[in-house]
Amino acid sequence: MLSIPINLNLPRTPRLITSLPGPRAQAIIQRDRAVTSPSYTRDYPLVVSRGQGCMLEDVDGNVFLDMTAGIAVTATGHAHPEVVKAIQEQSERLLHMSGTDFYYEPMVELAEQLAIRAPFPNPQNNAKFPAKVFFTNSGAESNEGAIKLARYYTKRSLIIAFLGAFHGRTYGAMSLTGSKAVQRANFGPLVPGVTHIPYGTHDSLDYLEKQLFGTILPAQEVTAIVVEAIQGEGGYIVPEDGFLQRIRDICDRHGILMVVDEVQAGMGRTGRLFAIEHWDVMPDIITTAKGIASGLPLGAILARPELMTWPPGSHATTFGGNPVACAAGIATLRLLESGLMSNATQMGELLQASLTKLHQRFPRVSPPRGKGLMVAVDLLDEQGNLDHKLRDRIIQEAFLRGLLLLGCGKAAIRFCPPLVIDSDQIQIALQIISEVLQDFSFI
Question: What percent of the chain has pLDDT over 70?
Answer without folding.
Answer: 97
